[in-house]
Request: fold
Amino acid sequence: MTQKSETIQKHSKRKRKETAIEQGFSFWIQIRDRSAKVAIDKKHFPKKINCGLACSKRCSKSSRKNVCHRACNACCFRCHCVPPGTYGNKSACPCYASLRTHGNKPKCP
Reply:
């Protein structure tokens, strides 16, 4: 073999090795991205609840049912959670409890 052909063979072996490493790395990136997407989907799309029914129960004893229901629905759509009972229990739903109006009053009934 000539020196030129040996150099070409070494170069082609190195190229194949680099290609295999790149393919392995690419596969790893794809797997990581898929698992990250699943984690994001679970985080950003929590279990759906029936906000209308939950807010009807929450606002059943309110003196201003329409106002209560409108605020409760807005909070439910944002937080996907409504505390149990007709009053209080906001610790069961931290997102619901943390929403505030522009006047810094609690938004959710």
Notes: The chain has two domains: 1-45, 51-98.
